[in-house]
Amino acid sequence: SRLLRLLIHRYFFTLQVLCRYQHTWTIDLRLRPAFLAGIMQATGNKPPAMLPKRAEYLLEDVKRMAKYYQVPLRISAESFQNILGKSNLGAMRFLTAVDMTQPQHLEPLSREFWIRFWSQHEDISQPDNMLSVARQAGLSSELAQKTLEMVSSPAVKNRLKETTDEALKYGAFGMPAVVAHFNGEPHLFFGSDRLELLGSVIGE
């Protein structure tokens, strides 16, 4: 079996590439919304941008990756710091609710959330923005509103926590994280720059 679980947060490059390759590689790609702050806290990890020189590097690196992967991105030093300071918990709960009820919409929703966050610099945890994202991704107004109402429910909160705990069980300490289940064994990959190693492990 070739099951890949991708923990989705704000990191679009890994999502974009795996979505492009899922049919070429013949993999079963499953997107799993998880809460990055919970993973960071549990592992004692800290955001790399807290180190000023690394933040400078990350800004340029993100621009290079956007060009390489041909992904739309508009970002400056100011917007980069502003983006990193925003919470995405509401968006992750929204995606979790969709995963529980209409999982076929998870991929387009994840893409649209990324565009709003990184290219348009919107607060994706605001209800109006979540509804707008949902409509753009193809959800009906009725379904989008119903999903929004689920965001604060115990069922959705518990599901997101369970997924986050599962990520920790596999050894995740940040995102993007991919757990590749291949030949009966799980393999954890961290970062968008490990996609070649992922391909190598699954024989691609």
From TrEMBL:
DSBA-like thioredoxin domain sequence ranges: 15-201
Catalysed reaction, written as an equation: RX + glutathione = an S-substituted glutathione + a halide anion + H(+)
Biological process according to GO: glutathione metabolic process
Keywords: Transferase
Family, similarity comment: Belongs to the GST superfamily. Kappa family.
Class of enzymatic activity (EC top level): transferase
GO molecular function term, any single one: glutathione transferase activity
EC number(s) given by UniProt: 2.5.1.18
Keyword Transit peptide (UniProt): no
Sections of the chain in a coiled coil: none
Name of the molecule in the record: Glutathione S-transferase kappa 1
GO cellular component: mitochondrion; peroxisome
Organism (species): Bucorvus abyssinicus (Northern ground-hornbill)
Domain of life (superkingdom): Eukaryota
